[in-house]
Amino acid sequence: MPSSARILVVDDHEEMGQMLKEPLTDAGYRVDLSTGGADAIAQLRARVYDVVLCDLRMEEVDGLDVLAAARRHDPELPVLLMTAFGAVESAVEAMKRGAYHYLTKPFRLDEVLLHVGRALESRRLRTEHRDLKRQVALRGGLGSLLGHSVPMRTLYELIDRVAASEAPVLIRGESGSGKELVARALHSEGHRSQAPFVAVNCTALPHALLESELFGHIKGAFSGATTTRRGLFVEADGGTLFLDEIGDMPPELQAKLLRVLQDGEVRAVGADGSRRVDVRILAATHQDLDARVKEGRFRADLYYRLNVVSLRVPPLRERTEDIPNLAEHFVAQARARNPRSSVTALAPEVVATLARMPWPGNVREMENLVERLVVLGAQPTVDLAQLRLHTSEAAPEVHPLAAAHGQVVPLRQLEGEYIAWVVARCGGNKTRAAELLGIDVSTIHRREKTDSGVSQR
Predict the structure, then answer these.
(1) How far is the CA of 280 from the CAs of 93, 122, 283, in angstroms?
(2) Taking CA 73 as the corner, what is the angle to CA 70 and CA 77, rounded to the nearest 5 degrees?
(3) CA 321, 325, 326, 328 torsion: positive or negative?
(4) Given pLDDT bands bounded at 50, 70 and 90, which one contains residue 384?
(5) How far apart are CA 141 and CA 181, in angstroms?
(6) Is the peptide bond before 106 cis (omega within 30 degrees of 0)?
(7) Of 46, 118, 164, 280, which has fewest CB within 10 angstroms of its CB?
(8) What angle do helix axes 37-46 and 63-73 make, rounded to 10 degrees?
């Protein structure tokens, strides 16, 4: 967007610089002027720009020197060079060295606006392409949000309501429960869906590098900063930034993050100026942030800023009725990744056993186990013996009648538990379960709806 793009105009004739600044500013861009090559290179070190518009012929430090400096600081920064008609050969040489385009004097101002707009669009497309590659890399893991249990239906309804909002969302849930998938769903269902979705895990990087990753840095800001880095806030401009495991962010970065959320501006490490960004913030944590605030380990003001809307992702043990569908989905995914595998399905008793396992690692743990079974399985159908070979503790077989032994249980409750147990043993096949029970399959569906209504109340 023009309102968020910053342009550096470089010309050793100040009146020419002013002549270019006015229409660019009127078009909505933020424009800085530089009256010489050396000054322009200094400004490139101090601030992040989206486009450079530079005169080719200047005394001492010319446009080719500025181009080289811009390429060193940010290889993707578009540089448009202005040249007199007689210096076209030099402009062509500049194009070979990485200039985006050149303008031959005298030129019309609408021509300048046209090429600046194209340069910005080219930069945006390159950024989106990089974001797309990052998203493809991140789409492993859990696969997709799946499940029709009451907790998941409740979550889907909340996502539908919250997605269209601009409010920050704090996503709570245990590790492996699918918090990033919820964040992606919020992004894809909202009006920013065509803009970048950028994710960062606050525990995946050393604290010293996390600040640079989030806010960017200029060349030479610290040891190893050999080029300028835009930062994830700038990359997510117009879209969504997902801060995973926000509860583990160090206190000094919490203060800087709060400042960005309050002011809507981000300052790169080592820079002397700020840049406005338009970003929706989604954050996630498995930590008890209320407790961390009381302990002084998480800023209360940042917590209130992030916790405008709170969504809870249910752990797998609270939605075991989804396990048959998840198992089928993960088998299909694992087979696609391992086409030479002999495994095509899990035996019903294996699915029933999976439904009784504790799953401290939630859906991610289950996916990893299913892939292990597919990779190492030697038979088309994985049975209980194979399952026990590849897991340290399979849940013991517990029949509903055994669970009720020694206590009085309402008949309707026992009937519902027994039907669910048989469905699980049939791998989620309700038609087969109805045949074994000697009832119509509509009875199973009706009982599930009735039980769901009771649990919702």
Answers:
(1) 42, 23, 10
(2) 55
(3) positive
(4) confident
(5) 10
(6) yes
(7) 164
(8) 10
As a whole number of Å, the end-to-end CA separation of the chain is 48
Secondary structure letter of residue 269 according to DSSP: B
Closest by CA to 384, choosing from 422, 432, 355, 352, is 352
At 141 the pLDDT is 29
Q: How far apart are CA 122 and CA 130, in angstroms?
A: 13
d(Cα 186, Cα 163) in Å, to the nearest integer?
A: 5
Among positive and negative, which fits the CA dihedral 172, 176, 182, 183?
A: positive
Q: List the beta bridge partners of residue 10.
A: 34, 54
Nearest to 124 by CA among 5, 259, 278: 5
238 with 1: CB under 8 angstroms?
A: yes
User: Confidence band (pLDDT; 50, 70, 90) for 74?
Assistant: confident
For residue 455, pLDDT over 50 is answered with no
**Three-state secondary structure call for residue 14:** helix
**DSSP letter (8 states) at residue 224:** T
Separation between Cα atoms, residue 282 and residue 307, nearest integer Å: 10
Contact 127, 305 (CB under 8 A): no
For residues 218 and 73, the answer to whether their CB atoms sit within 8 Å is: yes
Please report the pLDDT score of residue 408 as a whole number: 61
Instruction: Report the distance separating Cα 382 and Cα 396, nearest Å.
Output: 17
Q: Which residues contact 45 (CB under 8 A, 6 or more apart)?
A: 73, 218, 219, 220
Instruction: Report the distance separating Cα 430 and Cα 443, nearest Å.
Output: 10
Residue 404 has pLDDT above 70, yes or no: no
Please give the single-letter amino acid code of residue 8: L
Whether the Cβ atoms of residue 351 and residue 397 lie closer than 8 Å to each other: no
Provide the pairing of β-strand 169-172 with 309-312.
parallel
pLDDT at 451 over 50: yes
- Residue 143's region, left for phi above 0, alpha for psi from -120 to 50, else beta, is left
More confident residue, 17 or 423: 17
pTM of structure: 0.60
- The residue ranges of DSSP E strands in 25-139, in sequence order, are 30-34, 51-55, 79-84, 101-105
348 class by beta-carbon count within 10 Å (0-12 exposed, 13-18 middle, 19+ buried): buried
Question: What are the CA-CA distances from residue 415 to residues 207, 301, 409, 430 (Å)?
Answer: 54, 50, 10, 15
Residue identified by tokens 């039980």 is 451
Three-state DSSP state, 304: helix
Helix (H) or strand (E) holding 353: helix 348-354
